[in-house]
Amino acid sequence: MVEANQNGTDRDAEEAILEAAHEVFVRRGTAGARMREIADAAGVNQALLHYYFRSKEGLARAVFGRAARRLMPAVLQALGSDLSLDEKVERVIATEMEVLGQHPYLPGYILCELAHHPERADQLVEAALGEGGDAAGQAVVSLLGRQLEEAREAGTIAPIDPRQFVVNLLALAIFPFAARPLLEIMLGLDEVGYGEFLEERRQQLAGFFLRGLRS
């Protein structure tokens, strides 16, 4: 068992707790998770969970924020950059598919938490964008709006609301991970087959999205 404040293991213990808690929360949901199970999975004394996070709710908030930070900052950084539209689409899709490939249950966990704890939407925005994140998000949408309008005026894309652009771009990559159990049944795919399906989608999605913009 890891003890607090011994041999410089505080950071290791906290990270082990967060990783174990994430696995338990994804499997059981926040309401069904038990602190004893998380402590056992992390290999620490249960008292350490309270030492670092005070309560299960405090731990749940920490895990939720950590999950949000794994995906959204890189996506929004790409959208707010000076890359071309084509480069932004390719970068965002590559980032989404890479992160979600490493953490495939992340979308389902975040959506479930938001459904049961809608007050965490503010935490999700703050984790993704930092303090004052709503203003930063609006700035990204405004920048995209100007870029999309310039492309429309140049005749290279069809008209599209920047908000629809962002939602479409995120949803096309996230949905196959969020709905994996359902899609595996509908498409008749086992774990290996679904992995191949996701790899095929990773290779084709940017081209599909860009062709839609130009139609």
Note down, in words, how this protein is organized.
The protein has helices spanning 10-32, 35-42, 46-53, 56-69, 72-79, 85-102, 106-116, 121-129, 133-153, 162-178, 180-187, 191-214. It has 215 residues and is mainly α. It has 2 domains: 10-66, Homeodomain-like (Arc Repressor Mutant, subunit A, Orthogonal Bundle); 70-214, Tetracycline Repressor, domain 2 (Orthogonal Bundle), CATH 1.10.357. The longest helix is centred in the last third of the chain and has 24 residues, at 191-214. The termini are far apart.
Number of helices: 12
Helix % is: over 70%
Strand content: under 5%
**What is the name of the CATH architecture of the largest domain?**
Orthogonal Bundle
* Tally of strands: 0
Poorly predicted sequence stretches spanning 5 or more consecutive residues: 1-8
CATH class of the largest domain: Mainly Alpha
Question: How many domains comprise the coordinates?
Answer: 2
Write down the secondary-structure element order. Answer: HHHHHHHHHHHH
Shape: globular
Main sheet properties? none
Determine the CATH topology of the largest domain: Tetracycline Repressor, domain 2
The computed structural class is mainly alpha
Report the CATH superfamily of the largest domain.
Tetracycline Repressor, domain 2
- Give the overall pLDDT as a whole number: 88
Query: What is the distance, rounded to the nearest whole angstrom, between the alpha carbons of the first and last residues?
Result: 60 Å
Task: Tell me the Rg in angstroms.
Answer: 20 Å
